Amino acid sequence: MNKKEQVKERIGQAAMECFERYGLEKTTLDDIAKAVGLNKTSLYYYYKNKEDIFIEVAIREGESFINTLQQSTLKKKGVENQIGFYLESRLNYYTNVLNMNRVSVESLDKILPRFFELYDAMMVQEKDFLTKLLVQAIDREQLDMEDPENTASVLINFANALKHSTEQQAILKKQVEIDYAQSLRDTKFLVSLIFKGIRKQG
Predict the structure, then answer these.
(1) How far apart are CA 77 and CA 122, in angstroms?
(2) Is 24 helix (H, G, I), strand (E, B) or coil?
């Protein structure tokens, strides 16, 4: 890790502490600069705004979480349990990140476009992982299906779409908090519905 990366890591840690304390919306760049021991002008060398800091740290921590989650998923028995556990855990993690850093609906509206732009690479990794789980189940003759890659893509895309729909509704209705409970129930139903169709009979 070079000097610039070390400074950015320090900024990220300090910023997340500020977000937890004050909330993303109320935290200022001055707060972050003071917490990390830099002046505001120096902070601009690394980041344009506080939302960029949040997104970069959230993506970095998310990548680490996804790697750990995939290892935990492999310990579950049965491909339906594995995929259900995976999709539910990633939604719960995302919800916890927003709640822990007290991200308001207004702030979420600002960060979502940039977040999805950076999240694309992680999505490829996630789809590859689910594809491997499905292929292994096909090889064990547990599933009857011809396109595991497309099924994995549908699972991830629909789980993301359900979450995103909940967020957009909250933004449009100007809700104070976002309730992901229905998204979680719909995700569980989606998994059970898909596996009902592809589970090998007899």
Answers:
(1) 25
(2) coil
The pTM for the full model equals 0.88
Radius of gyration of the chain (CA): 19
- Token digits of residue 58: 């959230």
Q: So what's the pLDDT on residue 108?
A: 87
pLDDT at 202 over 70: no
DSSP output for 141-174: T-B--S-HHHHHHHHHHHHHHHHHHHHHHHHHHT
CA angle 158, 92, 28 (to 5 degrees): 105
List pLDDT tens digits, range 53-83.
999 999 889 899 999 999 999 999 999 999 9
Q: Which two tokens stand for residue 28?
A: 């200022």
CA distance 177 to 97: 13
SS percent in the chain: helix, strand, coil, step 5: 80, 0, 20
- For residue 90, the SS3 value is helix
Dihedral (Cα; 41, 97, 110, 16), 10-degree rounding: -10
Cα(80)–Cα(196) distance, integer angstroms? 10
- Counting Cβ atoms within 10 Å, is residue 39 exposed (0-12), middle (13-18) or buried (19+)? exposed
